[in-house]
Structures are given as structure tokens and as C-alpha cells.
What we know:
The protein is α+β, with helices and mostly antiparallel strands. The chain has helices spanning 38-45, 76-86, 133-140, 171-180, 199-212, 228-231, 258-265, 294-304, 326-348, 350-358, 361-366, 403-410, 435-445, 463-468, and strands at 3-6, 27-31, 51-58, 65-73, 100-103, 122-126, 146-153, 160-168, 188-189, 247-252, 271-276, 285-291, 316-319, 390-397, 416-421, 427-432, 449-450, 453-459.
Amino acid sequence: xxxxxxxxxxxxxxxxxxxxxxxxxxxxxxxxxxxxxxxxxxxxxxxxxxxxxxxxxxxxxxxxxxxxxxxxxxxxxxxxxxxxxxxxxxxxxxxxxxxxxxxxxxxxxxxxxxxxxxxxxxxxxxxxxxxxxxxxxxxxxxxxxxxxxxxxxxxxxxxxxxxxxxxxxxxxxxxxxxxxxxxxxxxxxxxxxxxxxxxxxxxxxxxxxxxxxxxxxxxxxxxxxxxxxxxxxxxxxxxxxxxxxxxxxxxxxxxxxxxxxxxxxxxxxxxxxxxxxxxxxxxxxxxxxxxxxxxxxxxxxxxxxxxxxxxxxxxxxxxxxxxxxxxxxxxxxxxxxxxxxxxxxxxxxxxxxxxxxxxxxxxxxxxxxxxxxxxxxxxxxxxxxxxxxxxxxxxxxxxxxxxxxxxxxxxxxxxxxxxxxxxxxxxxxxxxxxxxxxxxxxxxxxxxxxxxxxxxxxxxxxxxxxxxxxxxxx
Length: 474
């Protein structure tokens, strides 16, 4: 392997190996004369911006220049502008051949990229769903000439997904947009259209997947515990002005897969979907996560922002503005979180459970159901001796709901005989005198969150089937 022989000699900052691609596309690759000294490179390229280092590739044995060099800039836009203006130019009057200038390949990409490469001119942004293409163009035209703008829409409804693309005429313009636009847009370089996966890229992500899947994140799920390391992760994070929504943007210095993203955020109940936005030309991973309710999103944001996954790599989590009313969302979140905390306290302390169930006003407060699910009105239970037509099996996450709350929920579908919990387990059963009522309960409640607890509701095995199962011998 050839060595990078010469480096910056004037002091200042010199990036380490792990910082070569930070920010992405900030290094240029030069094909020059073997006799071009470093001083000439510094003189000709310093007008484009702050140079952090210069490498001249030399033969391992003779130490002679191989006619290849790298220049590392502090910003991507500086490197792109240097490529645009210096590619095909001669460095000195004595040179007979013009130099070639490319954006140097990152450790996760497969080739150098030139000034006409679409991969450097198209950016991906997250926008309010109310934005039109004209709004998008108006926001980003200040950074350069735009070839086109497009908004990603739902194929069925035609509604905006809150995502868009902006294509510039020059790479430096796209880089300036990424560097200078508002942080809420989460701008990154877009993946090329119809680009076939390169073998090196597939190997990179395959190796990364094997490394990170072996680490299972552990998160303390107590809602009101403070963790200072998370709150101080981003000192510039102005939370007082931050929009609040059910959608989260996830950024990582290490690429991740959709399975890994799901495994992290599914720890918080209420996950609706997650989606990866790949940027194969940097070492960063980007994703979008959405929850069914704002309480889960807020909790996930403040619990997982700064979380290390894999160990040593902190992920950044922030809200995506979807135009929701923050006041209403916060009111719902507070109600759900208090209800969840009360339910947890009751479950862990039987004496308090009895007090809250039979102590008058406290019991009536607890029996109120906090959820986004539309529930039918309450109905009376049928007599206990009524024949059972259907049994439901219920799974609770992270803990069971109090018995009176369960009865309040499952009686609303009519014909409820009994609901009970299995001692020491996060499961329970509901017995119905009518199959239609039981099926309505499954349809309405399965996968939903009530009082901060996620329910799984499904048909239970019949008593006859359970009795026919082979008994354990241990």
C-alpha cells in the first residue's frame, strides 16, 4: 500500500484518520505532475477556503511523488468550488498537462466524483407537509441556480409526505445549501436515481450490520428519571423553540439498517413505522421514525437522544415539524404519562391498588381511560354464569393495567362476562358471551396504547385445546 508522504507543515489543525470524511466531500483528489511541490498546491488552492491538510502520495521505497495528492478543506462547499474552478487548469506556466480534480472517495463510497456528477448536486430535505414545489424553490434558491424541485407524495392520496428533493446546477451550490439552510430541513445529499448497488457498498453495509446487530441497547424505561448525559449531548439544541410532533429525525455517525433502527425505537411503546434515508457517500446514517401518539415520540426523543448505539456512537434524535398544534399535543402527552405512572405505582403496590379502587374519588380518577382510540360507551357486564362463547388473550407492555380499568375498557364492546389477570405475569384474559363483541374488542384494541400501556389482544386457545397440550415434565 502506498504511503501519504507529505503533510501540512504550517501547524494548525490536522484531521485524524477518523475525521478524513468530516464533513462529507471535503477532500479533493488531484492528478498532478510528479514535480509539483506542496507549496504550489497550497498557494493555488488556499483561495478557496481553509486547508486543513495536504497529502502527496509517494512511492513506498523511493519516496518519490506518484503525481497524486489530496487536499482536505474545512467545508464541503470549499472543496466543491475548488474542483469546479481548478479541474482542467495548469498549476504553473511550465506545466504542459492540465491537472484533474475530483471529490475524493469516502471510506463508504466506491469512486471519486467529478463536477458533473449528479450525486453531488441533488439534496434530500424534510419539509412541512403544507409546502408546495414553489415554496421549496423559494427557500433554497438563495444558495444557487436550481435545476428542479420535487416533493414526494403519497401515491394513493396525493398528499405530501413531508420530504423533497432539490437539484442544483453545481456541487458547490448543493453543499452550501446543506451547510447553511435551517437545521429543521435536515438536508443531506440524495442517493442517485436508479443507482445499482456497488459491491464495495454492499460489503460495507453488510459488515456494519454484523458488527452492530450483536449489541442490544439497554434503556431505563422509568418515565421521570433524568439523564444528564442525554440533555447535554447537543449544547446548541434550543429545545424552547423546537417543534413537537409524532415524527422524529434520527442521525448517526455510523450507518444503520431499518431493522436496527426499529429495534432501538420499538423499546418505546407506540412505534408506527421507521424508514431509512441512506446517504452512501458519507459515514452518516439518517432515518425517520413515527409514533402513534405524541407521548411516545416525546419520550423517545428525550430518552434516546445521545444514546450510544453501537457503543461509542451517539445518535441524534429531533422532532420533525408536521404542523401539529404543540399545545394540544403536550396536553395529551402529560395526561398519558401521568396515567401510566399511576398505573405502574398501583401495580407495584397492592395496598395502594386497594386504596385507589375502593377509596372514592381516587378510584374514579384512575378508572378514566387516556387514549387516542375511539371507544364505545360503557355497557353492563352479563351474569357470571353466562356460557362463554369466546376468550381473548391480552398482553401488556410494559406492565398490566389495573383490573377496574380493564373492565371499563373491555365491557364497552358488550357481553363481557369476566376479565382477569394472571398473577406475576404481564398477561390476562377476557371472557365474552358473544363472538362478535370479542372480535370488535380485538379490532379496536390490538396494538393500541391505553393509559400509557400497549395492548396485544388476540383469540385465546379454547380450554379443550389447552387441556390436550402435552404437560411439562419439569
